Amino acid sequence: MYTKLSLLLTLWLAMQLASKTTAMLEFKNINCEAVDKEFSEFEYCYLKSVNRTYKYISVKLKLLQLPVTNAKVNGALFQRHNGYKPFLYNITVDCCKLVKNPKYSPVASYFFDTFKEFSNMNHSCPFNHDIILDKLTAKSVYHRMTNILPFPEGDYMLQLNWFTSGIYRVIFKVFVSLKK
Q: In the record, which residues are listed under signal peptide (predicted)?
């Protein structure tokens, strides 16, 4: 009786362990560039590794010309295959409309939802303050890339090109690796 019960328990435990995903998302790098230095500058832009499993991104963009009454962002996702190649998305959206109405662009809303709780970009235009992204964790990005909209395993780069008043202002790139 005990051997059958222990055998069943062992099989059940093995099946539970085998069904657990061992996927992992890791931040690899971050790159921030103020193209128009008279409009903005990065006070800080870094990827911090607290330990092997806990990494986060923090960014502070100091705006030198306030208020910002209109802003657009071109977001493009790349996957690494002998260099970074376009993957799925390359869209341009009006940030003021997106924050006011997330249904304006579901794809842009998907990416915005990834970092909005870590940012002070929680209201529509005008912006009368610096832009801060504080401690965006790999765990929150992992959840969006595996549970909400599953991505295949690989290395990715998200590039955001920011414009205000039709002028190219900032480039932001984040590099991640997704393993399953």
A: 1-23
